[in-house]
Design a protein that fits this description.
The protein is mostly beta strands and about 250 residues long. The chain has 2 domains: about 140 residues, no CATH class; about 100 residues, Immunoglobulin-like (Sandwich). The chain has 2 helices and 19 strands. The chain has a 5-stranded mixed sheet with strand order 3-7-6-5-4, with no helix packed on it. It has a 4-stranded antiparallel sheet with strand order 8-9-10-11, with no helix packed on it. The radius of gyration is 21 Å and the shape is elongated. The two termini are about 35 Å apart.
Length: about 250
């Protein structure tokens, strides 16, 4: 099960939203995130685009998209000592993942999430066993910052029939292009990386063909990366893209 908490420091009555059960990606084959042997224990980190990464004690790494609840197995960390369980994980200033073991003391190891090849952190053999890490760093923060600085495409395409533009957003509004979509009712939802909705608009498509719908955002919205989802009348997601608000 995956849940979203409200900001406990600001909300007098915290609300917990059940998003539903995590689903294994079809490509995972026999490596399931629900398997106690391959996925018990471990730690979890997040990236600057709203994805979650589960690192199990047995070195398996999964990425979860909260919008779909699908967990994809990225692979198994290599280069770790025998019997070295990965119990703690955090992102360092260079954007690498640092892991540590509560079971075997052999220092800390770091790896890139794209290749999962671990190498020992120099000087970490004087540290202690660790069961958990925590800090405020996100994976791919530099890439997100680069997007915020304007180094992103003018339009993002999903299935070839829907586009979002302009991106980055500079004047509190953007457009969604519906091109040859089935006539019917659609919902456009804009949310932050924590899953909080900041804008919602219902759209009715009467005829097939190209149509552009403007989405206006409230003034004073915090600059950064947001998620835009478009749902059809069956609540199926037909677009799930990131935008940068400047």
């Amino acid at each position: 099960m995956e849940i979203i908490f409200t900001n406990l420091l600001q909300a007098k009555k915290p609300v917990i939203v059940d998003l539903g059960a995590i689903i294994d990606d079809e490509s995972n084959n026999t490596v399931s995130i629900h398997n106690r042997c391959s996925c018990w224990g471990g730690d979890m980190i997040g990236d600057a685009f709203g994805k979650l990464y589960v690192i199990s004690a047995s070195h398996n790494v999964f990425v979860i998209d909260p919008s779909t609840r699908i967990a994809k197995h990225l692979g198994t960390i290599s280069g770790l000592p025998a019997n070295y369980t990965t119990n703690a994980a955090a992102v360092n200033e260079e954007g690498e993942v640092v892991v540590a073991s509560a079971n075997v003391f052999d220092g800390y190891y770091k790896l890139k999430i794209n290749d999962l090849k671990a190498e020992k952190v120099l000087g970490s053999d004087v540290k202690y066993n660790v069961s958990d890490f925590a800090n405020s760093n996100f994976l791919f923060q530099k890439e997100a910052n680069s997007m915020t600085n304007g180094n992103t495409a003018v339009a993002n395409k999903t299935n070839g029939n829907t586009s979002i533009f302009p991106n980055p957003v500079t004047n509190s509004s953007f457009n969604v292009l519906f091109d040859n979509q089935t006539p019917g009712n659609y919902t456009v939802i804009v949310s932050d990386l924590a899953g909080r909705n900041v804008a919602t608009k219902s759209v009715t498509i009467a005829n097939e063909g190209a149509r552009t719908e403007q989405i206006r955002l409230r003034s004073g919205l915090t600059k950064g990366v947001y998620i835009v989802r478009v749902l059809n009348n069956k609540n199926a997601i037909i677009i799930n893209e990131k935008i940068v608000i400047q």
